Amino acid sequence: MNDDARDLQRLEQQRTALAERLKLPGWYLAATAAVMAAVMALPFLRPQHISEGVTQGSWLLLILTQIGLSRLLVRTTGVKYRGRNMTYPSARPVMWVTLAVSLASVAGEHVLLGRGDTVLAIALVIVVVAAVVGIMLWQNSAIRHDIRKGRAVSR
Fold it and tell me: Which of 47, 95, 126, 144 is the most exposed place for a label (fewest CB within 10 A)?
């Protein structure tokens, strides 16, 4: 029985160590916020200022930057995040919140820019970028909690 208690204690220590490694670094949050702000700034660029090719190239560059940031995060933490974190039960509601924020921000920005409310559209961008960083922290915290409690679903 003593060996079982020691094994459980070691398992708890391993879970805690893994959860601590999953903390998002500040540079990753700042870089993701910058990429998100750049994505949300693209609709502000009017066609008379830039060509369609430049806009498409900007989208491609931002997508590649985000992919690079994700890979750098994997190298930094040593833990590979899956595309959809369905492995962790606490992360599932976060996915729906993220989808709702994304759809609302795109629709809101389109409506505000269509009405000529540039100042409100800029305020929306700031709020959405802050919300995205908050959602990332919330999701990361939920995943770390699941790991500590042993709630990860194996595949």
Answer: 47
